[in-house]
Amino acid sequence: MHTHRGFVIPISPSAYAGYLILPPLFGLLCNHISPFLFAPYIALILLLMLVMFQRTMKKCRASGR
């Protein structure tokens, strides 16, 4: 599988930002609401990842990569 360097570079800072933001966000939710939100929180993140993956694959197929 070939990757275009211009495509990989913007993803790295986004992944790093998500890695830094999501755990404290969940901590705030747990402290102020309930720790039972962990399952829906993870499900929402997985759903978002699936949607973004599908969109990326669709764009790659359209560009012929």
Structure described in brief:
This protein is 83% helix and 0% strand. With 65 residues, the chain is an all-alpha fold.
**N-to-C CA distance:** 9 Å
Report the radius of gyration as a whole number of Å. 16 Å
Number of helices: 2
> In percent, how helical is the residue content?
over 70%
Amount of beta strand: under 5%
Q: Could you give the order of the helices and strands?
A: HH
Contiguous runs where pLDDT drops below 50 for at least 5 residues: none
Gross geometry: elongated
Per DSSP E runs of 2 or more residues, the count of β-strands stands at 0
Based on helices, strands and strand pairing, what is the structural class?
mainly alpha
Mean pLDDT: 77
Biggest sheet overview:
none
Describe this structure in words.
The protein has helices at residues 5-32, 38-63. With 65 residues, it is an all-alpha fold. Helices cover 83% and strands 0% of the residues. The protein has a domain at 34-65. The protein contains 2 helices and no strands. It is elongated, with a radius of gyration of 16 Å.
Helix and strand topology:
Layout (H helix, E strand, L loop, with lengths): L4 H28 L5 H26 L2
Features of the shown structure:
65 residues, mainly alpha, 2 helices, elongated
